[in-house]
Amino acid sequence: MGHDILIVDDDPDIRGMMVRFLETIGEVSVAATGEEALRLIAARPPRLMLLDVVMPGMSGIEVLKAARDSTGEITIIMLTSEDDVGLAKQCLELGAAEYVTKPFNWRELKEKVKRSLKDAPRDAKLASGLPWRTVVSPDPTEAGTIEPGGSGSPK
Fold it and tell me: 22, 118, 126, 131: which has the highest count of C-beta atoms within 10 A?
């Protein structure tokens, strides 16, 4: 069986905070690049991937497309500091379940992850051509938002 959550972000601080925050709800693996993420997916597909849009080398959009082409059973939440409606629409049309802007509300992100894991298949597997569901969900931009590296960041 694959790991529950794959975090893909080039920022080591964000990866570390997300691991510490999410490891209580599932087995967490990390990748610093898109290429590394695709190797992990090929070897052991996760049920859920939290994927940064803007990364050096292979972008999150490219990873999303490649993951969609190789498997239809990974739920993907896109993460970005870009508050761009067009980019959000593109991600959702390509198969992302959600689009969340940074800095994010940690409590709301954890709830999205729990909800996504509940809905995700138990055993993600390579299965080209399966339909992906698209769920449009508004991004939380309310009080309680924690900026990565800020004084209120999870430790």
Answer: 22
